[in-house]
């Protein structure tokens, strides 16, 4: 199963791009990428960061890509997290990952809503290294994930966290600070809670001592050996989706009119849920959704027909119904090329499938409208940047007269 998934994720064309500490892209075929060395060290980039929490935008690009940084001490598990969540690497394979010695950047844009860049940093970043332009990096950042190895002594990690957070906050106070208390698979439930409480207290005490209590840190218990890492990443990504309240509202309306107990909107490739209704999420429900997506994709890989472009065995016809022992039904339906709606409902509610399907039709239409607005915004941005570009291309900066 994991092999198929791996291919599926990789075929999406997620590129691995590496940058050294100074931002030198050593990938030859990446020359025409907007974010290569020139842009990375170019002061112009600052002017592209006008979108604050949304992340950094190249001055000439139409797309805003929130930047998510993965930081933490060596061997804390940063690269493993990235590989497991976005490359479908099986957790055991991460044992053979080599230490990262340069910044690795990856674009994640396999979903209509989920577009961001992940920057995986080497364990020990020297903020005082003059070649490391941390101001420029933090200025364009939407979320900073700091990974702490919970199986190791975390005193050093906590002082590193404090240094990183305070530096980043000074540059960009809009960054979301997310702390992953990682590798909790080796801990008992009591031990997990105890660690979380201790780390939470120490990290916040350090901030209070530095008179920076206004900095908010969010904590998550994570492991690559279960779904906790996907759930934590989902929450990090959701904070970067400006349409989130609209999506949540649509889901609330949909479930309350259809007798559905819980609904998630999933990015199928990464299994990140980009929105859910307002009732609380429990881990087991989330795990069942992930398993259902795996089943649908695996069966489609074996029996489905891939389109002309090949690769994605997921289309308009994709849907699945799974009846659980507990008289609960799981219902999955395609929403867009990349998104799936996964719902939980009682068997008796599922008898009104016609009503559910009609409501789903309305829900899908509403989602498409949200997309259209997004596309319109992107188009107008593109137009604006094209104008800006042509203005800069003229020798004295005066606008060109259209022929
Ligand atoms: N038990 C356990 N081990 C993990 C987990 N995540 C990562 N590891 C292991 O931790 C080790 C280090 O993982 P890496 O992903 O290379 O760590 P890193 O933070 O990227 O390390 P650098 O590149 O040196 O900064 C590997 O052997 C992983 O298998 C986890 O959730 N649980």
Automatic annotation (TrEMBL):
Disordered: annotated span: 1-44
Keywords: Cytoplasm, GTP-binding, Hydrolase, Lysosome, Membrane, Nucleotide-binding
Pfam families: Gtr1_RagA
Keyword Coiled coil: no
CDD domains tied to this protein: RagC_like (cd11385)
Family: Belongs to the GTR/RAG GTP-binding protein family.
Designated name of the protein: Ras-related GTP-binding protein
């Amino acid at each position: 199963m994991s092999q198929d998934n791996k291919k599926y994720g990789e075929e999406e064309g997620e590129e691995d791009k590496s940058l050294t500490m100074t931002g030198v892209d050593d990938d030859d075929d990446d020359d025409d990428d907007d974010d290569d060395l020139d842009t990375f060290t170019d002061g112009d980039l600052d002017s592209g960061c006008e979108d604050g929490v949304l992340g950094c935008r190249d001055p000439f690009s139409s797309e805003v890509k929130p930047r998510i940084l993965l930081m933490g001490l060596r061997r804390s598990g940063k690269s493993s997290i990235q590989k497991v969540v976005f490359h479908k690497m099986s957790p055991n394979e991460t044992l053979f990952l080599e230490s990262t010695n340069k910044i690795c950047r990856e674009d994640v844009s396999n979903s209509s809503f989920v577009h961001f860049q992940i920057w995986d940093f080497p364990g020990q970043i020297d903020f005082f290294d003059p070649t490391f332009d941390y101001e420029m990096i933090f200025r364009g950042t939407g979320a900073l994930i700091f990974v702490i190895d919970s199986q190791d002594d975390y005193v050093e990690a906590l002082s590193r966290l404090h240094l990183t957070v305070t530096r980043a906050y000074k540059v960009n106070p809009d960054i979301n600070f997310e702390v992953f208390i990682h590798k909790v698979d080796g801990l008992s439930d009591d031990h997990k809670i105890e660690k979380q409480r201790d780390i939470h207290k120490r990290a916040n005490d350090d901030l209070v001592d530095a008179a920076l209590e206004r900095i908010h840190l969010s904590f998550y218990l994570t492991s690559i050996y279960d779904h906790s890492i996907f759930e934590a990443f989902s929450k990090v990504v959701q904070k970067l989706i400006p349409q989130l309240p609209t999506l949540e509202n649509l889901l609330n309306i949909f479930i309350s009119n259809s007798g559905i107990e819980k609904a998630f909107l999933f990015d199928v490739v990464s299994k990140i849920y980009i929105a859910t209704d307002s009732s609380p999420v429990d881990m087991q429900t989330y795990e069942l959704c992930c398993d259902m997506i795996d089943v649908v994709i695996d069966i489609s890989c074996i029996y489905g027909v891939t389109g002309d472009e090949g690769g994605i065995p997921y289309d308009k016809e994709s849907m699945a119904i799974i009846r659980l022992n507990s008289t609960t039904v799981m219902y999955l339906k395609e929403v867009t090329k990349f998104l799936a709606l996964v719902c939980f409902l009682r068997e008796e509610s599922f008898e009104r499938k016609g009503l559910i399907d009609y409501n789903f039709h309305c829900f899908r239409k509403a989602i498409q409208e949200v997309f259209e607005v997004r596309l319109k915004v992107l188009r107008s941005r593109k137009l604006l940047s094209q104008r800006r570009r042509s203005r800069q291309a003229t020798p004295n900066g005066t606008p060109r007269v259209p022929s």
